[in-house]
Amino acid sequence: MDAGLLAQYVVIALAVLVSAGFVARRQFPGTVRRLRIAIAVPMVRDGRPRWLRELGRRIAPPGREFEDACGGCNSCGPSKR
């Protein structure tokens, strides 16, 4: 296998991974959120190296501050009826 063909396979594999990630985030946001939490929680525990805790914080999804207050549409504005 020559270098050009290998480069094509790498580019195609990256494109497929990015596309699959985009579809997962758009179609299954709750599942992606739970997966990110499951990956990040063991990384941020006490006793872990600093770089690992920082990586875990970056992986962790943002908190849901006001979701329970109004039903969870996350628009935080007047409803459009």
Brief rundown of the structure:
This protein is mainly alpha-helical. Helices cover 67% and strands 0% of the residues.
What would you note in describing this structure?
This protein is an all-alpha fold and 81 residues long. The chain is 67% helix and 0% strand. Helix 2 packs antiparallel against helix 3. The longest helix is centred in the first third of the chain and has 25 residues. The chain is flat. The termini are far apart.
Q: Write down the overall mean pLDDT.
A: 87
CA-based shape: flat
User: What is the helix content?
Assistant: 55-70%
The count of strands amounts to: 0
Give the low-pLDDT segments. none
Rg, nearest Å: 19 Å
> Mind summarizing the main beta sheet?
none
Structural class: mainly alpha
Helix tally equals 4
Straight-line distance between termini = 60 Å
Q: How much strand?
A: under 5%
Helix and strand sequence: HHHH
List the helices and strands and how they pair.
Blueprint: H1 3-27, H2 29-43, H3 50-59, H4 67-70
Helix pairs in contact: 2-3
Main attributes of the structure:
single chain, mainly alpha, 81 residues
